[in-house]
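Class, study these two lines:
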Amino acid sequence: MEIPPSVDPVLTPPTRSNVLPVVNKKFRLLVGLILGLLVLVCVAALTAAIYILPIDDKFVGVVTKIVPYPIAVVNMQPISFKDFYKERQALENFYLANETAAEEQMSEAELDTSIIETMIDREVIRQLANRYAISLDQTKLDEVYTEAYTSSGFEEAFLSEVERLFGWEKEEFMSHVVKPVVLASQVEEAINADEDLQAAARTKIDAALARLKNNEDFATVAIEVSEDVSAADGGDLGYLPLTQLPPEWLDFLSNNELNTPTEVIDLGNVYSIASASDQVEGDDGTQFNVKTIIVYKVGMSEVIENFTAASKIWNFLKI
């Protein structure tokens, strides 16, 4: 049997048709890589310029109107240059409209610092509102806005003055002034009503009431417990007309015997106990000689301070 000779495998020589796709693919990848690096370099250079150049540099102003660069970040929530410039323009417009003398104006550095700190505080309050699941109360928004413009008599006159002073339309006034005020008030209400947060203050005032019910002298307890300036006088506020008494006190004092302490009464930002040692009739009507024990709740300023201290805040204005 004849064995066929071995045959070497024949290698197909590369042709133009099967080499070009590989070359083109590698070329496109290389070009893409180079372009990507160029873009990164450009973005890095642009970003560096934004944070190195002065805040009032025209280039910074133009770029940040288009690109939302943050001037500050609070717990990963950005505050944009664009919003900062809006606030700054409003204050500059206010100085100009009032013809404020240069020596009475804040320096540019002071102005910028004041604006950014205010914006950071607003963002902190917004985040606290989220923590308490608060949404803006439309009724309160309407009340605050109405109260603002009734001081001028007519809404049209008020809005005209707002535009003259700040360059704002109604919606801008609502956004920059009314909404932050209302949201802050709602956050304060939530803080005052937070039983866990106010537990220590409540325990303190409850202990004071227990001592009074055990027939301890009101003045003695007030001196030891009350946090009001009247504590040094045993909680004595003197004679007060009915119009100066909180409604919660007035209802109790008018319907109970003298020297009878109220229960613990929540007055919003304080817990209180009151008692009347005397009642007289005068030219101004009925007056009570009132004594009180006051224990302050944890206030909004303290909560904001603690929240801010625990937050991750980057203020790029300081760079």
The mean pLDDT is 87. The beta strands are 70-74, 77-80, 236-241, 265-266, 270-282, 285-296, 313-315.
